[in-house]
Amino acid sequence: LLPLANVVEVGYVESTGYVWIVQQTKVEHLFKMIGKLVRYDTEISAYIEKKKIKKLKGVKAKELMLWPAVSEATVDDPPTGKIHLKGLAGISKTFPVEAFAAGQ
Length: 104
Fold this sequence. Notes:
about 100 residues; mainly beta; 8 strands; At5g01610-like; DUF538
């Protein structure tokens, strides 16, 4: 889900689930299986909990000519093989989990 490069700092606060990642440069990655281009800023942060990433900052997915921010990612419990991504504008998209596996 986060194909990053040249990471210089990673942190995690166990009591709150807050996580942050700092990398030297922005990264763009094409998830070929779903044809989505995603941009990762130099600073990425979020709150993580079981099967969910909330308040995600620093990640944008190209949609037509725009780059809306992705603010949340959730997988179903029990597992269905789907991941649900939500943007700040409330727009949601569902994709197969394997589209975001390492090497994709």
